[in-house]
Amino acid sequence: MYVIKVGGALGTTFSSVCNDIHALTSRGETVVVVHGGSAEANALGQQLGHPPRYLTSSTGMRSRYTDAATLDVLTLAMVGRVKPLIVAQLAGLGVRAIGLTGIDGVLVSAEKTPPVRAILDDRLRVVRDDLTGRIASINSELLDLLINGGYVPVVSPPVIDLNNGPLNIDADRLAAAIAVALRADQLLILSDVPGLLRDINDPASLVRSIPAGAIDEYMELARGRMRVKLQAARDAINGRVARVVLGDGRGSSPVLAALDGAGTTLEATPYAKGIHSSTTQG
After folding, report:
1. Fewest 10 Å CB contacts: which of 11, 56, 148, 174?
2. What integer pLDDT is reported at residue 213 of this predicted model?
3. Which domain holds residue 143?
């Protein structure tokens, strides 16, 4: 089984990914797709006069500030723009794709993030109205029901807190949680970069492999969204997903390329090598 996360930074460029998914399902492979929608959400927010705002935590992590209006924008972008495009492209190839959010059938239960001290609009404050969550559980029975019925689930935020309502959640971490819950063989996280780079301005500085025990060391290299993707990869590896690839979704055959080793590969191994090992150089 493959869980394939399609990054929101890819915008609406999904034809190559969908072609590869069709190739996999045609040969009997099981696939679950998870997608984000950051680029579309940003564009829609600008159109609606509600541009994105960001929180910066004490550790330097940057995340989208999700007040009620932003959650509406995110939901409209993911459910109204991105998801129909992916599902329609897959359907046109003969793939029985079905679109879901984490709310549908209580697919993804979450707990609202507690108030946090963070920098918002250049001011340090206690943020209490951020509608983001942490995953509590995945309804794998629902996914299994759809998979066994021959469908390819196409999943995205928002998710549900039964006490607080819909919540935003990071789609990379969502993909990792689904991969763990379904005991997937591989998790592919595709975005608009080749993988983890030692120098973000130099694609040739790609780190080609990371030993499972050395992920925290490599976290020092990650910048921006790549830091969250590496955290998601760690979640999956710790949850016994055998292989994770941080790959480039912009190529002519991005899924198959990632399966063949293009990008940054993490594999669960009984040993760990340090960041300076010659076997891990890009």
Report:
1. 148
2. 83
3. 2-280
